[in-house]
Amino acid sequence: MKKTLKVLALILLIAPALLISSCKKEEAPKKTLADYKKEWTTGTWKQKDITLAVSVDLTKKYGVELTAGMSMLDDPTINMLLGALGGNPFLYTRDNKYTFDGDGSYVVEGLNDFPGGISPIFAGKTGKWESEIFGTVLALFPNPDERDPHWINDITSSRLNLSIMITLPGLGDVPMNLILEK
């Protein structure tokens, strides 16, 4: 009987330790930076500006040098240069709004055809979007067979800076930044 009590006492001492060690805590999955970027991208953004991503030396052809960061909307030098070439087509984009829904669809409001043959900023007014390559690329799909990727230069919950390429007649493809704010 004493032996049975000792075994029972030993089991009662060991059992809680075994139960505690065998219980596995369910941890909530941790959000990655890519998860935050995708979450931040969702919503409606208003275009704030379009800026040059690189400096362009036009001194031989037009007598001006354009520096990285110059506003395609508000810089007087840009407006003078584009005015001499027939007008600043970027002014037509000032009120563009971009909505990226949580279901993966997007809508661009205010996207007009640019005068002077300048390519549109985004392919199409509607389509699907995805956050790719660890949240560093915003890929737009105006249709299933077409992909329009844009490198995310910077993103916070209220500001989005996308790398874009604009084809300017006489200059070719010029890298620019599309600045959006919520």
Q: Estimate the helix proportion, in percent.
A: 10-25%
Number of helices: 3
Rough outline: elongated
Q: Roughly how many Å is the radius of gyration?
A: 28 Å
Q: How many strands appear in the DSSP assignment?
A: 10
SSE topology string? HHEEEHEEEEEEE
Poorly predicted spans: none
Span of the ends, CA to CA:
77 Å
Largest sheet: 8 strands, antiparallel, barrel
Structural class based on helices, strands and sheet pairing: alpha+beta
Mean pLDDT: 82
Strand order of the largest sheet: 1-4-5-6-7-8-9-10
* Percent strand: 35-45%
Layout: helices, strands, pairs:
Layout: H1 2-22, H2 33-41, E1 43-52, E2 56-58, E3 64-66, H3 76-84, E4 97-100, E5 105-109, E6 126-132, E7 137-143, E8 146-155, E9 159-168, E10 172-181
Antiparallel strand pairs: 1-4, 1-10, 2-3, 4-5, 5-6, 6-7, 7-8, 8-9, 9-10
Describe this structure in words.
The chain has 182 residues and is an alpha+beta fold. The protein has three helices and ten strands, in the order ααβββαβββββββ. The chain has helices at 2-22, 33-41, 76-84, and strands at residues 43-52, 56-58, 64-66, 97-100, 105-109, 126-132, 137-143, 146-155, 159-168, 172-181. The strands form two sheets. It has an eight-stranded antiparallel β-barrel with strand order 1-4-5-6-7-8-9-10. It has a two-stranded antiparallel ribbon with strand order 2-3. A hairpin with a 3-residue loop joins strand 8 and strand 9. The radius of gyration is 28 Å and the shape is elongated. The model has no long low-confidence stretch (mean pLDDT 82).
List keywords for this structure.
two-stranded antiparallel sheet; 8-stranded antiparallel β-barrel; 182 residues; 3 helices; alpha+beta; single chain
